[in-house]
Specification:
Layout lengths: L18 H6 L8 H6 L8 H12 L5 E7 L5 E8 L7 H15 L12 E7 L8 H17 L2 E9 L2 E4 L4 E3 L25 H12 L1
Parallel strand pairs: 3-4
Antiparallel strand pairs: 1-2, 1-3, 4-5, 5-6
């Protein structure tokens, strides 16, 4: 399932043993591209398909973030979009916003020893595709939100007027862009569950259909 959400107040869920560190040093709550690449973020098999599917569903404008949860086969399980509030880039606040949206659309996997599902983040913004401190704050926030929700931390993707870019991987494309209309494209989703069969009720229905 896919959901879109309007901006909502960020929840306050501290994770550090020293919350004062979060309150005093926003620069400590961002990741450089080298740190992100060294974190072992799983590569998307088909990032173009993921980007086109999320762009088609949510039609993001500038300052819109889309967080999506993929199953092990890279099928979309849930997604939510929201607009970033006009405040300084802070990974802690971004983390809270992402975690709030994840809690709305998908149950946590904290009981699993190893995460199975993966969360990816697509952020539509002004500027070019080069890394910014704002991107670093989103990376930090995504990684922390995934830890708190029992998910694997997946790709961070920017969408600008120049196209899209998977930061830390060097993969990107010219379409879609922040200005392009959504394409009539359906990203692969998990198939609906098959109806249950068997039992007296099913036999009655089968006989009725045969008539």
């Amino acid at each position: 399932m896919t959901f879109g959400f309007a901006p909502s107040p960020a929840a306050s869920v501290p994770t550090s043993a020293d919350p004062s560190a979060h309150a005093t040093d926003p620069l400590a709550r961002m990741l450089e591209p080298a740190e992100w690449a060294a974190a072992g973020i799983p590569l998307l098999r088909n990032p173009r398909e993921v980007v086109r599917g999320l762009h088609s569903r949510h039609r993001p404008g500038p300052a819109t973030a889309i967080v999506a949860v993929l199953d092990p086969d890279e099928r979309l399980r849930a997604s939510a979009s929201f607009t970033r509030r006009p405040v300084p880039a802070d990974g802690w606040m971004f983390r809270n916003s992402l975690l709030s949206q994840l809690r709305r659309v998908v149950p946590h996997d904290l009981r699993r020893r190893t995460p199975v599902r993966t969360a990816v983040l697509l952020y539509c913004r002004e500027g070019d595709t080069r890394w910014t401190e704002e991107d670093g704050a989103w990376m930090w926030g995504l990684r922390d939100a995934c830890t708190l929700h029992g998910l694997r931390c997946g790709a961070y993707i920017t969408l600008t007027r120049d196209g899209w870019q998977v930061l830390g991987e060097g993969r990107g494309g010219r379409h879609p862009t922040a200005d392009s209309p959504p394409e009539p494209f359906a990203m692969t989703e998990a198939p609906p569950p098959l109806p249950r069969t068997g039992g007296a009720a099913s036999e009655v229905l089968r006989r009725a259909a045969a008539r």
